[in-house]
């Protein structure tokens, strides 16, 4: 199928919308109420996209975007998991219609880390009830909006909610348990599969996929130990979801290791059948940084993957975004796309997120023009887009590039500490101000054909 190249941006409901009428608590809402000190400057979402969506979509159109990806908030659309909230239906209908009216393709993601608290009270993704609940929610979305939305995604970066909730304590409920992480991973995979199955049964004339973050492990050396560490990092970080969603498989090495270590999770024969079937139509690929690893050298204090199987490794002399501590390595986006081409049947793929977050951007304001001169972002985006273009020339079936994100937004525990946008947000007044990168990207897209 011949596709028009998609230029655009990703964002999410919980990071931009604000408090919708009738919305119930997500895990993030609950955690903020319980422990606000864990959130940078104790700031909540200030974008107010629910009321500002026309302004923001207009800014997207004027920068020459032809597509946007956001998410529906489960807690807004179905506050109790059963009944539909009319206020949410009105908002999402208006938002979708406004995108279409402006010539922007809406890509809608169903889950972006915002687990409903009523479901977390039952066990979240570790409970089988989550599978049926997610299917009911997704089916409702398809029925309400599927006549206009023709590109759907089930999850954004599902490995993140698995790791951050059940291994590394970055998301509520902050548990450290490999067996629970594996159960959450498995249930998420099965929830994805049943939703893909349902979407195609509804014959709505669109396509459905998943958004995965891919940072290919790079071993410190070619020693057997470092190569083994890189393989394990790949299994934990990428292959669990890549293989399940694109090949209908679950890594045999992890199954075998789990049996040896008595890590068990509940499955059924019907779920294994689901796993083998219902491939996705397209893949969203998020890329920010590579994953450099080495064989374990640290004292193992906890049963966690990055202690048992591999350790992180920082290569001397690399370029770093000091605000995030992340390596800047544009070549990695090329490597990721070629990995999909060579090992996953060159499925249609688009870059679903890529960007750089910087703290304290006010120091880059030009005092005469009052504009943030974010040349570092221009360089970052230019280098990564060039790597994408090279991958396309080398045969990648890549059909789009979405940045994270076009307007500064709220970012989990970091709140508004690091700014990612090409449009600056004043969190006190809500004013949107264009950065230098906005004008650069507008002109770049106008004169670029991929």
Mind explaining what this structure looks like?
The chain is α/β, with parallel strands linked by helices and about 450 residues long. It has a single domain (about 5-445), classed as Glycosidases (TIM Barrel), CATH 3.20.20. Helices cover about 40% and strands about 15% of the residues. The strands form five sheets. The chain has an eight-stranded parallel barrel, surrounded by five helices. It has a three-stranded mixed beta sheet with strand order 6-8-9. A two-stranded antiparallel sheet has the order 10-11. The chain is globular and about 65 Å long. The two termini are about 15 Å apart.
Write the layout of secondary structure elements.
Layout (H helix, E strand, L loop, with lengths): L5 E5 L2 H4 L10 H8 L14 H14 L4 E5 L2 H4 L8 H16 L3 E7 L5 H4 L8 H17 L5 E6 L1 H9 L11 H25 L4 E7 L3 E3 L4 H23 L5 H10 L7 H8 L5 E5 L4 E4 L10 H4 L2 E2 L7 E2 L4 E2 L3 H13 L5 E5 L4 E2 L15 H19 L4 E7 L13 E2 L3 E3 L6 E3 L1 H11 L4
Parallel strand pairs: 1-2, 1-14, 2-3, 3-4, 4-5, 5-7, 6-8, 7-12, 12-14
Antiparallel strand pairs: 8-9, 10-11, 13-15, 16-17
Helix pairs in contact: 3-5, 7-9, 8-9, 9-10, 14-15
Secondary structure category: alpha/beta
> What percent of residues are in strands?
15-25%
* Order of neighbouring strands in the sheet with most strands: 1-2-3-4-5-7-12-14
List the total number of helices: 16
**Spatial extent as radius of gyration:** 21 Å
CATH topology: TIM Barrel
Total beta strand runs = 17
Regarding quaternary structure, what we see is single chain
Overall mean pLDDT: 96
Low-confidence stretches: none
Q: End-to-end distance, in Å?
A: 16 Å
Which second-level CATH architecture applies? Alpha-Beta Barrel
Please report the first level of CATH classification, the CATH class: Alpha Beta
